[in-house]
Design brief:
Length: 814
């Protein structure tokens, strides 16, 4: 419990610190209005935005970003107004429907108060409809304005990327840098003095105690906090999780989170030590707060790299990497994390000191060279590790296609950045370096989450796991269904992660979180097919209703078939028919509930019904006929589960095992199953042997010689049939002398058993016993008469000495 308590304490402090840091660095975005505004106010705001966007020459990236946020907020306000006015319009329409239409000419006049009320309601509804229409227009124009502003930002960003400066290999580049160096040094010196002044205030007597406490806590987290947290998480996973892939994926996730939380929280403690009472001021404090956020990002990069490589513990490694390659790549995650922090610091500092264009270009070029150099070194080490395996005689593992594409993209990116730096396109090189760094983080995160979700689903729905056994016991789910569920859920989650990752990887012109969230929100926007609305939220709710409804239906059917119905006097066939009919009814109810959750109006799917009616009239006629026949079989029950039926026309005879929606399963005597359409059981002649509880009749014909004592034989045969345990006393067994045929007496032995299914086995037993008893009583059975054909010898030919002729073969007797 102490380990869990420490983990919970550290996580709660870290989450709280992260939220505070994000709150301090969050941009000033307009909060959504508490109540919907009026249409006139929305039109006024829209006109102001249009005037601001019209002056594009004076707009920078910051101004365009502010206009984007304002246009998005205006669209949200317009949508809120539409949402608030629509129910009022529906209520007025309902009142008008209650009043009904105005009477025509020639009809009795209605009371004046009713006419005035209808007139007022019609006027109010017309005003509301006009406001709703105007609000929808404002929402549409705000969305168009949002797209226009995004296009302007894209053009501005592309213009910056396409700007070309002097090449770092030229003298003009360094000359411009040296000319502006004094001003840049002065700006940096002023920032340094302001920072030192702000930091010195943290050493004042009122701030020393929290300064030392936060500093010691940060040092403790830097030194032992990560190891203690990872050790606690390791003990938690080994004690609570089953051995397998899930434990490995969970450890990788915990290592990533542990590194992020410890180093990020330590950076926030350092920030608190310096700015406990707001001593850093607005400018330096804002810079420090933004660096705390970037410290969290850098810590996440380092933790993700450590978790994926796991150079010290190969058994924890998620990707299929060799130990040599993991050791070679081990220093790169922390180096890239420091580069990410340095990138953010350089961007903020250059803006803070108003650095010259040459200094900004030089810093961006140096940072792009640093990041690209690290990526190039990592690629070179990968190649060396691969060549080392080949030299040792070990074939390297086959790379997946996506890994090869990523490596090729990294090579292309490195070459592009180097060429851009040499030719003077430093802004593009800087953007490309940041994009490669961001892409690596996104790919690593998605890879880890995909493996984690796949392992979670495989573990939870494994037929041998504790959860899988509980699902089988509680809901009667077969092991095959559990495995299929795991595969489907894993595939859906991976596809969802991929859909989220692709916009992040392909985000143009450095799109910020707001725009990415807006793009992601478009996936959940309302769509329509004709008049049928497609709402993603309703689809999710419908899936929940479908899964819950099917689960409840299975539970009820299982309870009926295993608990309630077996305790009644109903026969098994009737019990199965009741369960099947209940399944059909519950299925229809679940389907209706799903349609209601989707808010599907029957008028919206009339064209679907029309198309289906045409299909039913041609291709689905037989299916519908069999379906109706199945319902008739379950209702009238001319045949039921357990009956022994015979279809002379189809040559099928056996026991009915199951009556499905479309066909009936009949098991024949050789244990094979015949699928018979339900319509054949309704329209054709069917012999139901067991419907009225018919008995099975065993009949044996025995030929015996004419010299047989008939009475003695009759007594022996009756004794054999009476001694068998399966033969019935009523009707009694009988032995009849049927006829005399071919010198033999034909005895017909008849006995009855409880079921026609027992006839074959009882008949075999009786024959064995009869032959033994007849032989013991010296009553032989008749043998068939043999027919002997003799061929006469050929006559000798004239003039030939028969005695001198060689003897020919004697023809065999037949």
């Amino acid at each position: 419990m102490s380990i869990l308590f420490r983990i919970a304490l550290i996580l709660s402090l870290a989450i709280g610190s992260g939220s505070l840091a994000l709150a301090q660095d969050a941009p000033d975005t307009p909060a959504p209005a508490a109540a919907p505004v009026t249409v006139d106010q929305l039109n006024s705001q829209l006109e102001q935005l249009r005037q601001s966007v019209a002056d594009t020459d004076k707009l920078g990236d910051a101004a365009l970003q502010d206009l984007r946020v304002r246009s998005q907020a205006l669209q949200q306000q317009a949508d809120q107004l539409v949402a608030s006015l629509s129910p009022q319009s529906d209520a007025l329409k309902a009142k008008l429907d209650v009043l009904g239409p105005a009477p025509d000419k020639g009809q009795p006049a209605e009371p004046p108060e009713v006419a005035n009320q209808r007139r007022q309601l019609s006027k109010d509804k017309a005003d509301l409809d006009a406001q709703v229409k105007q609000a929808k227009t404002v929402s549409l124009e705000s969305a168009q304005l949002f797209g226009q502003i995004s296009a302007l930002r894209r053009q501005l960003f592309e213009a910056r990327l396409s700007q070309r400066t002097s090449s770092p290999l030229s003298l003009a580049f360094w000359s411009s840098l040296s000319r502006n160096a004094p001003d840049d040094r002065a700006g940096l010196a002023e920032l340094g003095r302001d920072t030192w002044t702000a930091v010195s205030k943290a050493w004042q007597p009122g701030n020393r105690t929290p300064f030392f406490i936060c500093l010691i806590a940060a040092a403790a987290l830097f030194s032992v906090g990560r190891r203690a947290l990872e050790h606690a998480l390791l003990r938690l996973t080994t004690d609570r999780m089953p051995a397998g892939h899930l434990r490995r994926s969970a450890l990788a996730l915990f290592i990533t989170l542990g590194t992020t939380l410890t180093f990020g929280f330590a950076a926030y403690l350092l920030y608190l030590a310096l700015d406990w009472n707001g001593t850093l001021g607005e400018e330096i404090g804002g810079l420090a707060a933004s660096l705390v956020i970037f410290a969290w990002i850098a810590a996440y990069i380092a933790g993700l790299g450590r978790a994926l490589l796991s150079a010290g513990r190969p058994s924890w490694r998620v990707p299929a990497l060799s130990d040599d390659l993991a050791r070679r790549l081990r220093p790169f995650p922390p180096l890239l994390a420091w580069c990410a922090l340095l990138l953010a610091l350089a961007e903020r500092v250059t803006v803070q000191v108003s650095a010259s264009l040459s200094a900004t270009v030089a810093v961006n070029g140096l940072l792009a060279l640093l990041v690209t150099g690290l990526i190039a070194a990592a690629l070179m080490r990968m190649g060396r590790a691969r060549r080392a395996l080949l030299a040792a005689g070990t074939a390297p593992g086959k790379r997946p296609l996506w890994v090869g594409l990523l490596v090729a993209a990294a090579f292309a990116g490195v070459i592009t950045v180097f060429l851009s730096l040499v030719t003077g396109y430093i802004a593009f090189a800087f953007f490309e370096a940041k994009a490669m760094l961001r892409g690596g983080v996104i790919v690593g995160s998605v890879y880890l989450l995909m493996h984690l979700l796949n392992d979670v689903f495989e573990t939870v729905f494994s037929p041998d796991s504790r959860s899988g056994l509980r699902l089988q016991e509680s809901f009667g789910v077969s092991p095959v269904r559990l495995e299929q569920t795991a595969v489907v859920l894993s595939g859906v989650s991976r596809a969802f992660l991929l859909l989220l990752a692709i916009p992040l990887l392909l985000a143009p012109y450095g799109a910020g979180p707001e725009e990415l969230l807006a793009r992601g929100g478009q996936l959940f926007a309302v769509r329509s097919i004709g008049t049928l609305p497609i709402v993603p939220g309703n689809i999710f709710k419908a899936l929940v209703v479908l899964v819950a409804g099917v689960a409840v239906m299975r539970i009820v059917k299982r309870w009926l078939s295993q608990r309630l119905l077996p305790k009644t006097a109903l026969e098994p066939g009737m019990q199965m028919s009741i369960v099947t009919l209940l399944g059909y009814v519950c299925g229809v109810l679940v389907f209706v509930l799903v349609l209601a959750t989707l808010k599907v109006d029957l008028q919206s799917i009339t064209w679907v019904a029309s198309a289906l009616s045409v299909g039913i009239g041609f291709g689905l006629q037989a299916i519908v006929q069999n379906f109706i026949s199945g319902l008739i079989l379950l209702a009238e029950r001319p045949v039921k589960v357990g009956d022994w039926v015979s279809l002379p026309g189809a040559g099928v005879e056996g026991d009915i095992k199951r009556i499905n929606v479309r066909a009936t399963e009949i098991q024949q005597g050789d244990r094979s199953t015949v699928i018979v359409p339900n319509s054949q059981l309704i329209t054709q002649n069917v012999r139901n042997v067991t419907q009225a509880g018919a008995l099975g009749r065993v009949q044996i014909r025995l030929p015996m010689p004419l010299s047989t004592e008939a009475g003695k034989a009759r007594k022996v045969l009756l004794g054999v049939m009476g001694e068998h345990p399966s033969t019935l006393e009523t009707p009694k067994p009988s032995v009849q002398l049927d006829t005399v045929d071919g010198g033999s007496l034909i005895f017909v032995c008849t006995a009855y058993v409880g079921s026609p299914r027992e006839v074959a086995a009882v008949k075999s037993d009786l024959l064995f016993d009869m032959l033994d008893k007849l032989a013991a009583a010296q009553l032989p059975m008749s043998t068939p008469q043999d027919m002997v054909l003799r061929r006469p010898a050929p006559e000798p030919r004239t003039g030939v000495d028969v005695q001198a002729a060689p003897p020919g073969p004697v023809p065999p007797a037949t």
